[in-house]
Design goal:
Structural class: alpha+beta
GO biological process, one term: immunoglobulin mediated immune response
Shape: elongated
InterPro entries: CRLF2-like_D1, FN3_dom, FN3_sf, Hempt_rcpt_S_F1_CS, Ig-like_fold
Protein name: Cytokine receptor common subunit gamma 2
Strand order of the largest sheet: 5-6-2-1-9
Membrane topology: Single-pass type I membrane protein
Number of strands: 16
Main location: membrane
Largest sheet: 5 strands, mixed
CATH topology of the largest domain: Immunoglobulin-like
């Protein structure tokens, strides 16, 4: 009967699994290489697992193979390599790479040339100048590449309007016409290798943005927004103080109409409807309305017309005033 040592079996299975993972990770490598600013070649590999270190070697045509002298690390593991360029013409040469794992599993790849994989560094020192004579805006910048001026082309864009992208510019300056001073502009520049020196498919990153516009208009908008916000907060604060000060919230916008029945209760309950007593009219005011003179009495006499028609005119009775003024016989006797 054959006896199997269990610990050795487990160790053998673990070794096979690790070997298989390393083999698969080496076969699943994806290596991308590009030339940075015509100074060095940068190769980056993206394995499925980042818990393994790789060794890298490269070779240009008509040159010897060299091991990597400057690795790119991520979490203390090698993920890339930088290979210095001896001259600019090497970008036209065939380029071969080799990536090996710790288990001596090798991944190889070759590039016919790297001329279409040149990425320049972003332009810098971008400045904006306004020319009042011809109403144009002049943009100027610098480039860190060692290529000739006719080997580099540039793009200028306004970050506020993506449609305003200039055509390829061969100089380190660019003029803009029909620019409104009341608008706000944010300019950026990028560069690439022109077709005269082996065109590249890669553009550099955009330069740091530079703002330009009417300072008075921009500051006015900023001050107006700040002022509106401050007045709104102040208004809310004052309204809050008024609400806390008043006994009722409705007093501010809708005053309460007084109830007249409360004022007339004393008239009907205490003074029995006597307005003079309720109003508290003074005696002097009452006496002022009393008459202080007397008039003599006057008897009114009614004239009875004659029942028979008499053609002769009837003497008109004496005036009423005369008869009333003369004392009667009964009054004379009584006197």
């Amino acid at each position: 009967m054959t006896y199997i040592h269990t610990p050795r079996l487990y160790f053998g299975l673990l070794f096979l699994i690790l070997s298989f993972q390393r083999c698969c990770s080496a076969g699943a490598l994806s290596v991308q290489c590009k030339i940075i600013n015509l100074e060095y070649v940068e190769c980056i590999w993206n394995p499925n697992t980042s818990t393994m270190n790789y060794t890298f070697s490269s070779k240009f045509a008509n040159d010897d193979s060299h091991d990597c002298q400057e690795y790119i690390l991520k979490h203390n593991y090698t993920v890339g390599c930088k290979i210095p360029l001896k001259n600019h013409d090497q970008k036209f040469s065939k380029f071969q790479i080799s990536v090996s794992t710790e288990g001596n599993h090798t991944f190889e790849k070759s590039f016919h040339s790297l001329k279409s994989l040149v990425q320049l560094k972003a332009p810098y020192n971008l400045s904006v100048k306004w020319n009042e004579h011809n109403s144009t805006l002049l943009l100027q910048w610098n480039s860190s590449t060692t290529l000739k001026d006719n080997c580099v082309v540039y793009n200028v864009r306004n970050q506020k309007d993506e449609t305003q992208l200039s055509a390829n510019v061969t100089k380190k300056s660019y003029s803009l016409t029909q620019v409104s001073q009341n608008k706000h502009y944010v300019f950026q520049v990028r560069s690439t290798v022109s077709g005269l020196c082996g065109s590249s498919d890669l553009w550099s990153d955009w330069s740091p943005p530079v703002e330009w516009g009417s300072a008075e208009n921009i500051s006015r908008q900023g001050w107006s927004q700040w002022l509106y916000g401050f007045l709104s907060v102040l208004m809310l604060f004052l309204l809050g103080l008024l609400l806390c000060y008043c006994e009722r919230k409705g007093i501010i916008l809708l005053p309460v109409v007084p109830d007249p029945s409360k004022n007339l209760q004393d008239l009907f309950h205490k003074h029995d409807g006597n307005v003079e007593s309720w109003v508290h009219i003074s005696r002097e005011l009452k006496d002022a309305f009393e008459p202080d003179y007397t008039e003599p009495s006057c008897d009114v006499c009614e004239v009875t017309p004659s029942c028979e028609a008499d053609p002769t005119p009837v003497a008109s009775p004496a005036p009423q005033t005369d008869k009333c003024d003369e004392p009667s016989a009964a009054e004379e006797q009584s006197s």
